[in-house]
User: Fold these one by one.
Assistant:
Number 1:
Amino acid sequence: MAGSSEICPALLLIGDGLGDRRVPELGGLTPLEAAHTPTLDALAAEGESGLMDPIGVGIRGGSDTGHLAILGYDPYKYYPGRGPFEALGIGVDVQRGDVAFRCNFSTVDANLTVLDRRAGRITEGTTELAAALNGLQIEDVTCHFKESIAHRAALVFHGPGLGDQVSDVDPHADGATIWEAHSTAENDAASEKTARILNAFVRKSYEILDGHPVNQARRAQGLAPANIALPRGIGKSPDLHPLNEAHGIKSACIVEVGLVKGLGRYLGMTVIDVEGATASLDTDTEAIGRAVVEAFRDHNFVLCNVKGPDVAGHDKNAQGKVQIIEKIDRMIAQILEAMDGKLILMYSGDHSTPVTYGDHTGEPCPILFWGPTVRRDLVTSFGETAASAGGVGRIRGLDVMKILTSYMGVQEKFGA
């Protein structure tokens, strides 16, 4: 049985893509080290720091696999592919046997060469574009398609006999021609069918979107048309044990992107949307902070993800990453003041996205635990270098929930 002391609420705060490498532009510091973070530095001096490998040492994880691991689910066992999380996260039903994809609205030329995988980071008109694709019937499969934030969207194939062992059509690079999907499993008729449907859907998406009024207007304004849908991250609906049952908690999920919202819904968490949360550098961190505090009225565990550090990392925007880290620092101060310090805080990243590389890498993320039950170490500031000397040491993402639930006072004792 868990101890009889009062349960202390916990905030698992993820700065998406937080980890980084030394940046010449920042005098050889990482963005986290260069940022002015008085709150985090004070918490580091009062708490315990270390390094965390979200998946494993040197593994380049994604946001989905990173969050799975940090929440205690081994991604090598439970990861279904990104599509189902993305789809469910934005309200597209994924039923047993369905195959789901995450998608980009992208720009291609007449030869289907990708000119811009994010269609100029389109922010308007995607609802109309998605409606033009939603409900397409290809053979005996219905295609459910819905827009997400900015250039992102989700696609679900609903029909009989579908497999998920299928290659991508998205070449993941500008200047490349889209790929032809094929089954990656030998003699797998179900996956061969999915590949055939997928290729047909992509071609139809170009035929429908290229001349769509939204894209005619974008061309007239000198903007890149969002004239094709590029699916990737195929997967089938996973079977995951609810987080609340696994740990004896009542959890809420306040995140900015459909991918992690979908994971939260699969895990039975209360998913809370925040107006002004844009999943970019202009996101309203004060609104997110208020939502976190409000969530603690009815929950004792909150997962919060702020996407901006990852966006800046992908854009190789060192100053932007510094600035969003500073906004998160102010948000943490806002939350702690409202909670009167009665909170266990874990702050880290779900992966590293160095601005000098522009994509995810395998370096560990700095991690910080702070709260009334957390022991102190000798670290006095928060950053990659300082955290490496902390008392937490170097842990895996799968260790985080064990540490947090112990500090909360909800963990069951192992053994007699």
Number 2:
Amino acid sequence: MPHWPAPFGRDADPLTQLVIDEELRAAGVRRPVNPIGIGWAGPTLLYAGTAEQKERWLWPLLAGEEFWCQLFSEPGAGSDLAALTLRAERDGDHFVLNGQKVWTSYAHIAQWGILLARTDPTAAKHAGISYFVCPMRSPGIEVRALIDMTGEHAFNEVFFTDVRIPADHLVGAENGGWELAKVTLGNERVSLSGEGALWGMGPTADDLVGLERRGGVGGGGVVNGVDPVMQDRLVSVWIESEILRVLRLRTVSAVLAGRAPGAEASVRKAIADAHGQHVMDAGRDLAGAFGMLRGTGTGATWSRGFLFSPALTIGGGTAEVQRNIVAEKVLGLPRDP
């Protein structure tokens, strides 16, 4: 994480970070897969963690020794996250947790989780929430698998029954968790809006067009050989990808000018999610019968991406919530009732 402050990073400005990213790509080097730890738990700890918390959790995270998950959503608190009900009650030098989380990616393999819990049930719903680091191997935590329609196990339900976590795992002030949640969600929306069509991973629109130029997603035909409607779809998908690339550059330019990315992160995520679905829909259609294959190979790539893509406009803040943020924060429209 070159842009993190020393000693955890290189204090790299955005321009230097872009150069480093280009060099990594040129060398064929991929960043490690620990999206929640690197993408939003780490930045939140840098923002609000104590010196001891940073020293304890950031080094193993950067070394790839510890994996992280995010314990935010609940059955009754998804888009309206502040409606969460999982309780954390103070008991001496511990907090005791009871409740449930859902759609927790990688909870079954994570050592740590960033967690929101209600510590003051009498306060207004945004004011009674605290932010914790939760040890996922604690007694009383039960993780149940949720298999998605790709057949893969990434999501989980997590149940807490009298789970005791040390009070020094509280990040920031007690009942001050909502402000930190907004920091985390802002980093999440930036992290989920990378170049790949599947939340920054997987193929891009350029990959799709390039494959078709070279002989077709399914192994035959070229762009000039597909019907005019498909040609128009490919052009539209490529235009979307260019718009997203320019928005990314605008975000970097804002940081270079000393401004923090704000609601534009929601703009980019709202567009990127629909774009990912458009890329995968076109890839599936171009793959033809190959698109029904599972396992490995080009056809399987588009088949899996097509099945995964409906999640894009839901995870990390629904498309509707992103548009509300843009409407209220950028356009100055009244709050959604």
Number 3:
Amino acid sequence: MTALLETRGLGRAFGALQAVAGVSLAVEPGEVRAVIGPNGAGKTTPTAGSVLFRGEDVTALPAPVRCRRGISRTFQITSIFPELSVLENVRMAVQLRGGGNFQLVGGRATLAASEQRARASLDALGLLDLAAEQATTLPHGDQRLLEIAMAVAQEPTLLLLDEPTQGLSPEDTVATVAVIRQVARQQRLTILLVEHDMDVVFDLADRISVLHFGQLIAEGTPDEIRANLEVQRAYLGGAE
């Protein structure tokens, strides 16, 4: 099977510190892949190497162009439009996916299609009842889900999630994991996940890539990563 996403020799340096050194990995269509490593390891911000999506080099493409190619993402720090309604946030994301034309020249059909897609995404994330609420009034857990709804509404093939459960209570974490799993299955998404909560990683991921001191030290299923002695020593608290 041809990889949907492939990285070749990715690197990230902070002055003399080489945080990531020549990391290459391949993510298959329909896979949920987790990348784990310590904070500041450069997991989300490489500055060397190349990224291929569907076999095409997208390394230098601007984010809006990548989005239109089928890649959407969420951020470690929640990124929404706080003064807009929940529905308006998601509709904004849909319109940006279509090229960012917010004029009404397209007529009612264009506006109706954007709203329909936005409502479908909110429904998938369990937020449709909150469509009219101002985004800033939502609790933190629902704001995280709203950001995911915005990304899903762009109809991506590949969804990049940067610590989607950060700052959530244990109850909200469990609920968010369940929603992500359901949406991934229903939308047939490929997901690349950066996450520090190991319970989330082991629960969601089909395969896990482990970074340590800038190197990719292991890849495998959750069971294989749990049993890997090098990973236990480097990241999971040491082998027993």
